[in-house]
């Protein structure tokens, strides 16, 4: 189709030189696509380089332990991506003899690989005619065709997939997919798109109707949930502390944190001092409790707002599961803990 030819021609002349574009190896492409979900290119590239250096093949990733993977992922957020990445690597090695699935249907059966990632790998690595639809593609298509269906609705997801599938190049599906995503990232941006440099501007309906700024449409976001986190930072003789692994099916699963008291509102010094959590943790009547940060540290997640305080507990009472402060950096922790440690230690 004409639109595909325009996209590919523009892409070949204007694409960014990115490390994962030097190969069609499915493991490498998979790794890059998972890392770049919900992540800016600048940040994602650094993680991609570290991951490919530490785990150059799917076999290396499969034989790593989960703590290693989570530690390397630390700071990237959405940790379920890392856990699913590790799980699928082990599955490919142990159940598929290390042979990467080579079709859209077989890829979608893998844990953590949805429509977008399966389409990207299948088209780029195996030349399968499967259109990708991500945030960039939604934006390009909604504006070009002046589509007013909400992109985050069930109807919209189906409609945009059909549109993308209808215009994809049958000869160069991978190149087409990379081109339309790149156009959305560089030219058809959310704000102040550079329509003058767009290869599709001559037939863009939203541009013609002056609707660029109102598209794409989205349904209203889910209400944000506010949570109060009180971290108990036990400081044993200035030598060790206590860490716990999050086991619940919640944010930061399998990451480590200081013992936590979660509440529905801010807690006072007295509330922490008399809490059951602290009594179970340390049996020391002479312990000293002080608040590290007077103001809440605000940490925003998808549909959640964490308001965190760190309570320092100085004690001489040892703990059977104590971790030396020098070893804390070896544990994978949420970024909010990592930032605290940089200031505290």
TrEMBL record:
Gene3D superfamilies reported in the protein's UniProt record: Helix-hairpin-Helix base-excision DNA repair enzymes (C-terminal), Hypothetical protein, domain 2, Nucleoside Triphosphate Pyrophosphohydrolase
Domain of life where this protein originates: Bacteria
Gene Ontology MF: a single term: purine-specific mismatch base pair DNA N-glycosylase activity
Pfam families per record: EndIII_4Fe-2S (PF10576), HhH-GPD (PF00730), NUDIX_4 (PF14815)
InterPro entries listed in its UniProt record: A/G_AdeGlyc_MutY, DNA_glycosylase, Endonuclease3_FeS-loop_motif, HhH-GPD_domain, HhH_base_excis_C, MIG/MutY, MutY_C, NUDIX_hydrolase-like_dom_sf
Function recorded in the entry: Adenine glycosylase active on G-A mispairs. MutY also corrects error-prone DNA synthesis past GO lesions which are due to the oxidatively damaged form of guanine: 7,8-dihydro-8-oxoguanine (8-oxo-dGTP).
Official protein name in the record: Adenine DNA glycosylase
Lineage start: Bacteria, Pseudomonadati, Bacteroidota, Flavobacteriia, Flavobacteriales
């Amino acid at each position: 189709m004409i639109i595909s030819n325009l996209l590919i021609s523009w892409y070949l002349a204007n694409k960014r030189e990115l490390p994962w574009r030097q190969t069609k190896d499915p493991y490498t492409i998979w790794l890059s696509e998972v890392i770049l979900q919900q992540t800016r290119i600048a940040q994602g590239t650094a993680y991609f380089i570290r991951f490919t250096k530490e785990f150059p093949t799917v076999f290396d990733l499969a034989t790593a332990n989960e703590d290693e993977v989570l530690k390397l992922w630390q700071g990237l957020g959405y940790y379920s991506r890392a856990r699913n990445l590790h799980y699928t690597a082990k599955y490919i090695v142990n159940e598929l003899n290390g042979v990467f699935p080579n079709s859209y249907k077989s890829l979608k059966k893998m844990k953590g690989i949805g429509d977008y990632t399966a389409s990207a790998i299948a088209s780029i690595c195996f030349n399968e005619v499967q259109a990708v639809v991500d945030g960039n593609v939604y934006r390009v298509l909604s504006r070009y065709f002046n589509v007013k269906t909400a992109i985050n609705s069930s109807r919209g997801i189906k409609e945009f997939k059909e549109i993308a599938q209808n215009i994809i190049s049958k000869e160069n599906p991978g190149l087409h997919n990379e081109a339309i995503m790149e156009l959305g990232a560089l030219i058809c941006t959310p704000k102040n798109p550079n329509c003058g440099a767009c290869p599709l501007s001559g037939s863009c309906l939203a541009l013609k109707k002056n609707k660029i700024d109102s598209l794409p449409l989205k349904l209203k976001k889910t209400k944000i949930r506010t949570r109060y986190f009180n971290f108990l930072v036990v400081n044993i003789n200035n030598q060790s502390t206590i860490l716990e692994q999050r086991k619940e099916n919640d944010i930061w699963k399998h990451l480590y944190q200081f013992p936590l008291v979660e509440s529905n509102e801010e807690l006072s010094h007295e509330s922490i001092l008399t809490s059951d959590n602290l009594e179970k943790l340390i049996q020391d009547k002479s312990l000293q409790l002080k608040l590290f940060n007077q103001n809440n540290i605000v940490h925003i997640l998808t549909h959640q707002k964490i308001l965190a305080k760190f309570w320092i507990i100085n004690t001489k009472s040892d703990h059977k599961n104590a971790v030396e402060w020098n070893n804390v950096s070896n544990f994978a922790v949420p970024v909010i803990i990592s930032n605290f440690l940089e200031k505290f230690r």
